[in-house]
Amino acid sequence: MFSIAEYSFVISASSVQEIRSTDSLGGIVVELDRPVLRKVRHIVERDARSYYVVSGYEHFHLPLSRPTSVLILRDVPVAVLVDRIEEMAEMRVLLGLPRSFRGEERVWYRGLTVLGRKVLPVADPRGFLTVDELRRLEEENPGLLQTAGHAVGASRYERERV
Amino acid sequence: MNAETNNLVPSFVVLQVGTRRIALPREGVAELIASPLLFTFPHTTPLISGVVLRRGRILPVLDLAPGVSGAPSSSTRFYLVVERQISNASEKCAIPVQGACELVTGIVFPAGDDRGFVTGHLDLNGEQIEVLDLEKAIAFSAAQKSEWIPATEALS
Question: Which residues contact A20 (CB under 8 A, 6 or more apart)?
Fold first, then answer.
């Protein structure tokens, strides 16, 4: 479980490669030449892999917050800035988002879960940057993901998986 | 009025949404529930204020008040559960209501309505209660809310 502003979210542990503090992220941080998305302004390179840094509060259209942690995702080239890591918990049920929800949340969430008698949204790791958003980022900043330390072949492989 | 005639008279649930009393056809109403907790999370769908948990099921909460009475509902513990048809499937939703709901029978009189979601009105002891087409009311309220967002952004 992680939180951004006043909200808590859940993300599957298997989709997270690493959790770091923003103070000790390390690696190389490269500013995007053309930040076509408000929520993405940097690329970070870690262990020869590169990730677009997505602002969690911008992604969910929340008020400005103070991120202290970074979720580096496993199967997508995305690192998400979040305010806090709350706890590890076992998710027993994943319920589909009710059909009445028709907005961006259908991309953001895999569904809803109930933890400790609270209903929480389950973030979809592929929802932080859609295929279209990744394409726009790479079109406007050609080669930047690779030059930040990412192998060209691996990048394409990841992009296809996204 | 005998029982046979009574069955032919349509019945309605009268509820208070925001500052106004309205009526919905009885057929689309499942139950009135008291739910202490409204769970909220980020989303971009107009009118939905969150979800409530009811017998292990998650019900989206649809606030009709912006379109019906001009302002969002004040906080409440009570919700009227209604059945909606969305994409050829039914889904239960919860509408926040203020105070008690009444089950009434009566004849619906036609009503002129430029908003397009009032199908008629009921005369309840002299009080005129508008009968709503739920889906049209949701669409109207959602459109109202969408108009508010750019206006709010322009002011900020």
Answer: A26, A69, A70, A72
